[in-house]
Amino acid sequence: MPYNPQNPLIVQSDRTVLLEVDNPLYEGARDELARFAELEKSPEHIHTYRITPLSLWNAAAAGVQTQHILDALNRYTKYDVPQNITVEIGDYVSRYGRVKLIKTPDEGLVLHADEAGLITEITHSKSVKSMLGQQIDAHTIRVPRHLRGHLKQALIKIGFPVEDLAGYVSGTHLEIAPLPVTRSGLDFDLRDYQHEAADIFHAGGDVRGGSGVIVLPCGAGKTVVGLGIMFRTQCHTLILATNTIAVRQWIDELLDKTTITPEEVGEYTGDRKEIRPITVATYQILTYRKSKSEDFVHLGIFSEMDWGLIVYDEVHLLPAPVFRMTAEIQARRRLGLTATLVREDGREDDVFSLIGPKKYDVPWRELEKQGWIATAECIEIRVDLPEHQRMEYAVADARQKFRIASENPSKFPLVRHLIQRHETDQVLVIGQYIDQLKRIAANLNALLITGKTTNLERAKLYDQFRRGEIKLLVVSKVANFAIDLPDANVAIQISGTFGSRQEEAQRLGRILRPKRDGSVAHFYSIVTRDSRDQEFAVNRQLFLTEQGYRYTIRYGHEYIES
Q1: b/e sequence 169-178, b meaning 16+ C-beta within 10 Å
Q2: What does each C-alpha distance from 308 to 235, 257, 300, 331 come to in angstroms?
Q3: Contact yes or no for 355/336 (Cβ under 8 A)
Q4: H or E segment to which residue 541 belongs
Q5: Residue 239 phi/psi, 5° resolution?
Q6: Of 25, 350, 356, 418, which has the fewest beta carbons less than 10 angstroms from its beta carbon?
Q7: Is 558 exposed, middle or buried, given 0-12, 13-18 or 19+ CB atoms closer than 10 A?
Q8: Pick from 335, 238, 226: which is nearest to 277 by CA?
Q9: CATH number assigned to the domain covering 368-561
Q10: DSSP character for 351?
Q11: Which of these, 297, 274, 271, lies nearest to 286 by C-alpha position?
Q12: pLDDT one digit per residue (tens) for the chain, 562 residues
C-alpha cells in the first residue's frame, strides 16, 4: 500500500500503534482499535495503543476475525503494516479455539486439539502436565473435572487460551420474569443493547455462551443486563457485589423490576447471612478470615446451593481468594459485569480464563449519542504547589511526594469556586485522603461520607442527595463503586489512587446517568502542576480517552478568572 499522509495511524513492528488525535479520521480509527488493542498513552496529540495477545484473544472470542483487524489497520495506516505484525495477528487470533475443553459421553471432560503436535507441546509443559489425565489419542487427553479452571489458567499463561465448550449444570430451577410496569410504577423493558448483551452471553443456552464479561459504562444499566440474563437462565443465582450498599441496590432492583418475592432473595453481608434462591453477597464477606493462617469462613457459599448462575459485579475488582474458588466451579454459568477490563494487579488473563472472555461492549460515546448516558465534559485543572511546601516536596520520597501534591491546599479555593459556579447542580467532591476530605467538608459546611460512615447513615444521605434535599456531598473512595445517584451531574476529583484507570471509570460513572433536563455532566480533576499528582493523572486520562472523551487541560488561575 502506498504512503497515505491523510491517514491517522502508524503501525510499528513492536506491536505499538500511534494514532493522531487531530485528524478527521481519528474517531473511526479509535473505535476500531478499541476492539483489538489496548491504549497505553494518551497525551494531547499522539495516542499509543499496543496489540497484545490478550487483546487479540478477547477480540477473537467476541467474533472479530483476523481479516477484519488487518482491513481496519490497512484502512487507516499511513504506511504499510509491518509484515511481522500481519503474521503475529493471524497467529494469536488463531490460537483462540485451537484447544478446546469438551465433555464427552464416554470419556468425560477432555482437552482436544485439531493438531497432534499441539497436544504434544502441552503435555510437555511443566506447568500443565500435572493437571492432565490419561491421553486418549493423538488429539485428545482426559482432564480431571475439578481442574477445569486451573488448567485454563495454566494454559493461557503459556500462550494457549482455551475455548471452554464443556457446558454447564442447569442449577435449581427458579421462575423469574420481568414486570412490564415496575412496583415503583414505571414502564420497564430492556434497552436494545441490553437485550443484545444478554442474548450474546446466553447464546440460547448453547455451550458457546454462559461465561464471559459484559463491558458497559456506569449508568448504562449493567444490573439490568444481569436481570436480563437471569430471565433467560431461570435458575438459582449467586450475585457478588462490592459492598453492602451495592448488595441492597441489587435486591431493590430485583424486587422492583421482577416477579421475585422478598422471601426468594437473601442478603449475605456483615449484617445478615441469608442463603436463598437468589443470594447477593459482598466480596468483603467472602474474603473474611480471622487470621492469615486460617481458612476463609464464608467461601462455602459457592457450594451452599445448586447455583446455575454466578454474577460477578465490578469483576475488575475480584479478589484473589474468589479467583481461587471460581477455578473450582467452572460448571456454573459465570457472568462478569464491569466498566473496564483493566485490573491494577495485571490479572486480566485470570478474568479471561476463569470468568470468561469479553462477550460484549459498547463505546461510551456511542451510548452518549443515543441518549442512554449523559454527555460529559472532562476537564483537568492544574494548580501550583505553595512556595512554603516546595522544599518539603523536593526532599520527600516518591510516595510522600504523591501525598503532598494530592493534599495541596491550593486546591481548596478552586473547589469552592467550582461549587459556586455549579450552585444549582448536584455536586460530588471525591478524594482519597480522609484528612483532606474532612478539611474540605468543614470548609464547605458539607456532609462527609467515608468508610467509617455506617451503611444506614450512607443510605440515608444518598437518598437525601437523590431527592435533592442535599446538593453537595464530600465522599471518599467508598462512593466509587456501584452507587446509584442518578441526578449527580458534577464530580470534582481532588485526589485519587496512584493513577487508577478503574477508579476513573467509577468516578466518571457517578455522573453519567442521563439527566431529565438533558444537561451536560461535568467531571473536574484538580491536580498539582509538575508533580507526582500530575504524572498519575496522565495515566487516569487513559480511561477517558479509551471511551472517546476529550480531556481539556486548564490552569487554576485562568479558570477562576474566566
Answers
A1: eebeebebeb
A2: 5, 21, 16, 9
A3: yes
A4: helix 532-546
A5: -115, 130
A6: 25
A7: exposed
A8: 238
A9: 3.40.50.300
A10: I
A11: 297
A12: 567 899 999 999 999 999 998 999 998 998 899 889 988 777 778 888 999 999 999 999 888 999 999 999 999 999 999 999 999 999 999 999 899 999 988 889 999 998 888 999 999 898 998 999 999 999 999 999 999 999 999 999 999 999 999 999 999 999 999 999 999 999 999 999 999 999 999 999 999 899 999 988 777 889 999 999 999 999 999 999 988 888 998 999 999 999 999 999 999 998 899 999 999 999 888 888 877 777 787 888 888 889 999 999 988 778 888 888 888 889 999 999 987 777 767 788 888 899 999 998 877 677 877 777 767 788 889 999 999 998 999 899 988 998 999 899 999 999 999 999 998 888 989 888 899 999 999 989 999 988 888 878 888 888 888 888 899 999 887 765 545 565 678 889 898 765 555 555 666 666 666 556 667 788 898 999 988 888 777 766 766 666 666 678 888 877 666 5
What 3-state class would DSSP assign to 350? Answer: helix
Residue showing cell 465433555: 103
**What stretches of 8-97 adopt beta strand conformation (E)?**
9-11, 16-20, 38-41, 46-50
Cα(279)–Cα(54) distance, integer angstroms: 32
* Identity of residue 312: Y
* Pairing state between β 38-41 and 46-50: antiparallel
Q: Where are the domains of the chain?
A: 9-95, 99-165, 192-362, 368-561
Angstrom distance (rounded) from CA 73 to CA 79: 10
Q: Which residues of 196-216 are buried (b: 16+ CB within 10 A; e: fewer)?
A: ebbbebbeeeebebbbbbbbb
Residues 6+ apart with CB under 8 A from 436: 406, 407, 494, 495
| DSSP 8-class letter at 258 | B
In the structure grid, which three cell numbers stand for residue 375, read together? 454527555
Grid coordinates representing 245?
Answer: 450498599
What's the grid cell of residue 159?
Answer: 500462550
Say how many C-beta atoms besides its own lie within 10 A of residue 1's C-beta.
11
Q: What is the largest CA-CA distance in the chain?
A: 77
192-362 and 368-561 have identical folds: yes
d(CA 536, CA 501): 10
Homologous superfamily in CATH for domain 192-362: P-loop containing nucleotide triphosphate hydrolases (3.40.50.300)
Is the Cα dihedral 231, 237, 242, 248 positive or negative?
positive
Contact criterion met (CB below 8 Å) for 47 and 18: yes
Listed in sequence order, the DSSP H helices in 77-217 are 83-95, 116-123, 148-157, 192-202
∠ at Cα 543 (537, 545), nearest 5°?
95
| CA–CA separation, 79 and 12 (whole Å) | 9
